Amino acid sequence: MAQMIQLLLFLIAFLSGFFFLWKLPLIKQAKGGGLPASVSVIIPARDEETSLPKLLASLNGQSLDIKEIIVVDDESEDRTVEIAEEYDAVVLSTRESEYSVAGKSSACWLGAQHAKGDYLAFMDSDTQCAHKHAFKDILAQFKRNGDTGLLSIQPYHVIQSFYETLSIVPNIIVLAGLNRYTFFNKRIPERGAFGPFLFVKADEYFKLGGHEATLYTHMDGLAMADLYQKEDYPVTVYGGKNSIHFRMYPEGLQQLIQGWTKSFTYGAKVTHPMVMLSIMLWVTSTYLLLTGFIDGLLRSDVSYVFIILVGYLLHAVQFRWLMKKVGRFPWWTMLFSFIYISAFLLLYLWAVIQVYLLKKVKWRGREYKS
């Protein structure tokens, strides 16, 4: 009887993994010739000498003629400014800002105030265009959406080092947490957007207050989505596999921990209870398999151990299906979901300690009060 209950719980937990990230829309390829547009790209940058060249090179190679590329230097201490100038970008400094608040939103607002384009694209320095037609496709998608509102893309994660595989589960959870991709489609209220890539019309952006309204948060994607939704502007969010890629936290494990710490608990605030429940159930599935396997071994129940191993194989295939939605990760990681889910839980616990007990989050040499 206990074994049947355990298997039933695993089945429920396993099916939950299909619920919260059922279908992730991607930017579709533009049809026909180029579209008339005036696009300004704004890049907030703080100590980004490693990532910035890849982004600027990908922007300079776009088939869509980008009006201007604005790099807003946020008090960098490396070669960020020199690199931006080498790629003929317009360089601004947050020291020119009228606001005492430092950080990404302040840099984005400063860049927007100097931009001349009819459309504004805000890109994190660690992103890059997936191919030369990326902006052409994004603009076409925006126009298909009614040429209004906020278009956001969660970049597709492409890794280079082993430690970066620790971002597999966080990437999955962050996407699921917006309530946009469930099996129920739009029947659950959708919330939030992703700060690494935001695309808007300039006139609407300034009418709503833009990043000036998000100065006191480091989760600008969530704040911008709330800003647009409150005024009944559409917010659409896409996966970046066909358009925008990034390499998250290339500077090492410490940067990865700090980066995810600042994202987890704030993102959880917008997650619908039903989606949160499905995520929690899915997380338990790997532990149900582990306890079942140990139980079968202790009782020398070969048939039950075999059933558990079949369940583990199914879970591994599902894990691979989920991770391919969010990034390009080694195939063998699908066999170690227990390790990656456990790492996620430890990261989340540390985020809770930082945000709710220590009341501060550290990022890029700055401390943000929670």
TrEMBL record:
It is found in: Cell membrane. Keywords: Carotenoid biosynthesis, Cell membrane, Glycosyltransferase, Membrane, Transferase, Transmembrane, Transmembrane helix. It comes from the Bacteria. Its main location: membrane. One of its GO terms (cellular component) is plasma membrane. Residues 40-167 form the Glycosyltransferase 2-like domain. It holds the Pfam family Glycos_transf_2. GO terms for molecular function: glycosyltransferase activity. Pathway: Carotenoid biosynthesis; staphyloxanthin biosynthesis; staphyloxanthin from farnesyl diphosphate: step 4/5. GO terms for biological process: carotenoid biosynthetic process. The keyword Cell membrane applies. The chain crosses the membrane at residues 270-290, 302-323, 329-358. Belongs to the glycosyltransferase 2 family. CrtQ subfamily. Catalyzes the glycosylation of 4,4'-diaponeurosporenoate, i.e. the esterification of glucose at the C1'' position with the carboxyl group of 4,4'-diaponeurosporenic acid, to form glycosyl-4,4'-diaponeurosporenoate. This is a step in the biosynthesis of staphyloxanthin, an orange pigment present in most staphylococci strains. This is 4,4'-diaponeurosporenoate glycosyltransferase. It comes from Alkalibacterium subtropicum.
